[in-house]
Structure formats: C-alpha cells, structure tokens
C-alpha cells in the first residue's frame, strides 16, 4: 500500500497464502489501527492509499524500498521476509561470487571466538605460491566485495587484513597471547568528509549533495581506520581521483590529511 498505492483482498491471499476470510479480517484490523490510511474505491474494487496515509508497519524511507528490491534481485529476498507484492521491472547488477571454504571459515570463526592462533597457508598476491604463517584472528570485515579476517600476523608482527577466500588451508591451533585491544586501527574510527567536486555547476553540486545526504554541502562517513582504504576505493577517492574529470569524479575528499598512512 505504501508504495503501490492500492491493494485488494486477493493481493493478500496470493502474497501471504491465507484464506479470503483471513484477508478480510486482516484488512479490518488494519483499518482499526489506522482508520485514516486507506479508503475503498468501489469503481476499482480495491483499497487505495489516502492523502493522510502514515505507515505503521514498514518504513517510508526510500532506502527501505530499494533495499527490498535489492533483496529480490539476490538470494536474500526469497526467504518470505520481503514485503513487496508487485515490484516494478528492475535489474540488479550481478557481482562475481567470491567463494569461501566453509571448513576454513569455521576454523577462523572458532579461533576468533576462543582467542586462538591458527596456522594457515595463505596465497598472497605478492608471492607466487601459498606460504605458511601463524595468525591470531579477532574479527571479520566486509569491504563490499570480499570478506577479510582481521588478524595479528606473527610473521610480520602487526595486525593486517587477510582475504578469507585466499586462505587455502588451515592447520594447528593453539591459545594466542595477542590482545585484540592492541589493534588500534580496528578500534579507532576515522571520519571521512566528502563534498561535491568544486568544478561542477551549482545545479550539479545540488544534485550530488542531495544524492549523498549532505548537510551544508558536506557528508561525513565514520569508518574503522583499518577500513578507510576500502571506503576510499569504493568512492573512487583514490590516487587517480585528481586525474578524472569533474563529471566523472563528482565528489572530493575534504580531509586527506586525516586519512591513515597507506589509504591511497
């Protein structure tokens, strides 16, 4: 009703798999809870959204609807929890499926939960073949495309990110003496401040500011320091940003001096 603007009893019957009698009862219950939300159109033989409509069951944020559409376009929207009855034609850009071994993921998760260190064979892109190393994992992170494990590398003597899918084998486990609280980059947050590109027209700047939910021409995104690199890459605020045209770049980073070393 919120987005489609109308419904009838058969819509509820088909969507929820209930009887016509139950659908009628549900509509009556809804009318009792929100008497000003819907009116009956005798010509169209359906209930239509009134001018005074105010949602009581779902959010009226646009993101709620587009997220539901996104769910329908992936595997997450077919578990019965999606409330869009008659979606418009839409398409969701597919992304390559990044495979993760369930057995390896279980080992990593158990090591995190139990405070263990684990021996892994890891395929780094800086090495021609997998190498064996000991990691003390303490968290998982998602960069929009891949899952990483945040772990202390006993080889490098520092906390680093490791792509879970590139752990090709796990071995022994034992108790770790590494305190996750020592991972400052994980626990520290950075505020990334962005604004419309200064060479855009005023109308273009207004459009970009609206799109990103900016206030006074600035949007602030708070992220863990260890994940700033991924955020800047996703926003295309990388080392090539200054070489792109204003129309292609669209936004700029206002506080590059606050970014951790190695973010670009």
TrEMBL record:
Ranges of residues in domain DNA-binding transcriptional repressor CapW winged helix-turn-helix: 2-68
PROSITE patterns in UniProt: WYL
Domain DNA-binding transcriptional repressor CapW C-terminal dimerisation: 190-258
Ranges for domain WYL: 104-168
Matches recorded under Pfam families: BrxR_CTD, WHD_BrxR, WYL
Name listed for the protein in its UniProt record: Uncharacterized protein
Originating species: Salinisphaera hydrothermalis (strain C41B8)
